[in-house]
Amino acid sequence: MSTQQLMPEVAALIVEALNLPVKPEDIQPDDPLYGDGLGLDSIDMLEIALVVSKRYGFQLKSDDENNQRIFASLRALSEHIASYRVQ
Amino acid sequence: MSRTLPLVSARAPHDTLAWTVRGPISVVRYCADVRRLAGWLPPGRFIINLCEDRYRYAVLLGACAVSGRVSLQPSSQSPQVFAQLLQTYEGCRAVGDAQPAQVLPLQVLRLPPLGLDEAERHRRDDDAIPAVPIDRTVAILFTSGSTGQPTPHAKTWGKLVASGQAEARALGLDARPHALVGTVPAQHSYGFESTVLLALHGGCSFWSGRPFYPQDLAQALAAVPRPRMVVTTPFHLRSFISSGVSLPTVDLWLSATAPLDDVLAAQVEAATGAPVHEIYGSTESSQLATRRTLDGAAWHPMPGVRLEQDEGGTTWALGDHVERRVPLSDIIALHEGGRFTLQGRQADMVNLAGKRTSLAYLNHVLCGIDGVRDGAFFLPSEDTAQRVGRLAAFVVAPGHDQATLLAALRQRIDPIFLPRPLVLVDALARNDASKVVREQLQRLYDDWAAAHGRGDAR
């Protein structure tokens, strides 16, 4: 599955996991998830990591600066999932 | 000349103080790094310590302590906070080890590389552990205060040494020093006390990184010897246990910054075979007491700590490592032998992820937003919460949507207090005292949870 196809699924996962007051389709692929934009914080990222590991079968790791990059946007997170998913 | 205490105590010179990806770092090498960095620091008394790596943080703290400077440790790194620090501490400089995540109103100096090679160190032939006057202020920690203005809490060297020693005794680490792996930053009081001070004065050593994901924790634990203690929070604990990641042996878990529920503590103990202990304290008072969560609600004061109550019902903390007699914001019942239990928060204090504010202040901010006719924040009780440690808010704002209101709130309050969910309602009933009663908010919250069909998110 391509990143493009995965994005709506990941957006729905984020909205549901965090009770966000937005519709999945309202999350723009390149809007920042962190800070401004959706305003996620580190506790949110831990929760997303958990649902991602359950759904896609792999564990996120923060190798230095990697973490900021993975969570930069819906597109970045979906790309990361697309390349590491095992289910 | 005031009395002095050493920068590091309870350790032999060649004991390991810190574990890093490049290998262990001994007490003498730490002291050499501290001396060298003290010579490099810019002039001026105040240094904002932004080092993310725990070892580099500790070297900068030490360099401040031995050179008469002060390590400033803000509770958040927002541009507004830095602007306020610049106003209060004229000429203060920031030193860090990474590119700041956002543009700041001051230049961040990059820490030079640390670590003399052993040969060079021996040529210098200086293995002495430096000493610091006990009444010297070496760090100022900040709370965001209920109004968002950073409030300073100065920490003197003698009290910090006593704090590290008291915690080691309270947790039995003085008899059996552990390697500490912390998921919390070194700058905030809990991480400062339970990772850095416990190593400098409680005989322990620490891992220099800050694991975030369960997989990171597994790697960090594998990099340090047993016995190991993980210094963490309920949020991280939940994530580690739910992830199913298999962890190397943990010998002790430590949790603080938010209440830990018994169910989670029992899960952690069952899954790992290690006891879960909690710390009670605050930035103002420093750490005060410990308990094993599953042994019951009572807290045991740390060695040298006493609580006293005045006629108005306010509880005050005082003792060996407490800077001064400090009023506590919790309602406390004292029991025999100095033990105590928490009876709830005073007024309407909210403490999330180590940050405090009051519901009254949040409601005041919410109702001040253009177009908001009425609104109330609500902290769900632990047994009904859909998400651990998040506030909810119910708002009457005809013609406004949630996103606009959240964006307006984000401009005004710390993001940890942003409501999840923010629910728009037609009206809020107020009682004779023009208060929105908690029962009503609980009903609204239950209705929302039912409508969203979310089972127990835990």
UniProtKB/TrEMBL annotation, chain A:
* PROSITE patterns (UniProt xref): CARRIER (PS50075)
| UniProt-listed Pfam families | PP-binding
Q: Which SUPFAM superfamilies match?
A: ACP-like (SSF47336)
- Which residue intervals define the domain Carrier in the entry? 4-85
Which protein are we looking at?
A: Acyl carrier protein
Could you tell me which species this protein originates from? Answer: Melaminivora suipulveris
TrEMBL record, chain B:
Example GO molecular function: medium-chain fatty acid-CoA ligase activity
Q: Which GO terms describe its biological process?
A: fatty acid metabolic process
Which InterPro entries does UniProt cross-reference here? Answer: AMP-bd_C_sf (IPR045851), AMP-dep_synth/lig_dom (IPR000873), ANL_N_sf (IPR042099)
Q: Which domain of life is it from?
A: Bacteria
SUPFAM superfamilies xref list? Acetyl-CoA synthetase-like
Q: State which residue ranges cross the membrane.
A: none
- Domain AMP-dependent synthetase/ligase as annotated: residue spans: 116-291
The family note in this entry says: Belongs to the ATP-dependent AMP-binding enzyme family.
Q: What protein name does the entry list? A: Beta-hydroxyacyl-ACP dehydratase
